């Protein structure tokens, strides 16, 4: 009996750890899947409102079952392999995009203790996993041997390289202020009220709101959203990197895109908008993070259905001639202020 | 068998898994005649190396490895292959005997040297107190102990940049 108790004492923490692991994985998968499904619904509804339509309404109340119907349709469709493709890479690419999108959620804290794996380098981990996403798009585009895909992938690379630089410069200047890469600590520093949020920390750097704007624009570009959706420009490139994909291959690319949008918006909320802190310092909790997160996503959708697509040169010029110089100046000013005070 | 032993075993299996990933990826990178698959293999190999860094208790190096080698270098390589054109249909050229012989000699000499060094070196025991691979410590080491190598790396980058400029410049003149 005693030995059995000892055994239990020994095994319980490990079993709990394994159980926690499984619960975390299931939660992340469910969160990403549900978000992708219902953000499409939200996007269609918002697009409808903006264009004076009502959007999907036939399937279920307010069209709420539409994502389910879309999912069933995508999953039951034949997995069609076109002639002349590179089979292995063609099948691997969508999985790569989806897996890296899932991996990003591992270190994102949604509230006090609501994180799958807290890492001191959480922010770095997210950037690392997100950077693989481009490789997935590139491999998929190459494997499908389609000229539209090729043009799109060339655009994806130049766009991502161009916008990663101002994004990382802005993050570097933010890190000088916070002094940590741990997302939980970054949120904890902003507790109190909205005047403590990084976006309004004017004493650390007077350019903080500008840094926030740059980060927001870069997120739009990195997730290939309008006005920077040149990679997927329907009117000229059919569907960009995933022109040759059907059924769930296309579904995975699509889910990956929405998952990345959620990752980007969550990062903005955590880095600049105080994460799960309340604007007035009362009742902090995950609900505040979700509120900020979905407000940002709705803004992104609002921008998509309001502004037209830029030209490719406009896109590159904006990054290299406007955003990078401002980000560099921001970095210098922040560094000087951190050194002086 | 107690569960803690099982966890230990799982950790070792994951370590061996990353070593295997690194080797398999490297093998694909070397032996696959299709260039783009070779690059995919290279990315796999980098991922395995990142896993090994994690087990050497430096998550910072792990994520930097993924961010720089997979996210930047592999992407640039794929991009370069795409610009160079579709090489999948081309058959590799036949090897010329003399360069092949010279390459084989050079490679075996280098391998022999590495093996000799590895077998005869006086290996130090691992330090009993493990240094944390935190970014702060790495930054300090770069700017104090290893500042010379840090600067030399930048010289390599400058040389690469000049080379790239020279190549592209030449290409434009020919047109």
The total count of strands of chain A amounts to 0
The percentage of residues in β strands of chain A lies in: under 5%
Helix content of chain A: 55-70%
The ordered H/E elements of chain A are: HHHHHHHHHHH
Q: Count of helices of chain A?
A: 11
Oligomer: heterodimer
In words, what does this structure look like?
The complex is a heterodimer of chains A (341) and B (175). With 341 residues, chain A is mostly helical. Chain A has one domain. Helices cover 68% and strands 0% of the residues of chain A. Chain B has 2 domains: 1-88, Four Helix Bundle (Hemerythrin (Met), subunit A) (Up-down Bundle); 134-175. Helices cover 78% and strands 0% of the residues of chain B. Chain B contains 6 helices and no strands. In chain B, helix 1 runs antiparallel to helix 2 (35-55). The model of chain B has no long low-confidence stretch (mean pLDDT 82). Chains A and B meet through helix 1, helix 3, helix 4 and helix 5 of A and helix 1, helix 2 and helix 3 of B.
Topology:
The complex is a heterodimer of chains A (341) and B (175).
Chain A: H1 2-50, H2 66-76, H3 87-104, H4 122-143, H5 147-178, H6 183-189, H7 208-222, H8 234-237, H9 247-271, H10 286-304, H11 312-340
Chain B: H1 3-31, H2 35-55, H3 59-84, H4 97-120, H5 135-143, H6 147-174
Helix pairs in contact in B: 1-2, 2-3
Write out key terms for the chains shown.
heterodimer; A: 341 residues; mainly alpha; 68% helix; B: 175 residues; Four Helix Bundle (Hemerythrin (Met), subunit A); 2 domains; 0% strand; globular
Could you give a short description of this structure?
The complex is a heterodimer of chains A (341) and B (175). Chain A is mainly α and 341 residues long. Chain A has helices at residues 2-50, 66-76, 87-104, 122-143, 147-178, 183-189, 208-222, 234-237, 247-271, 286-304, 312-340.
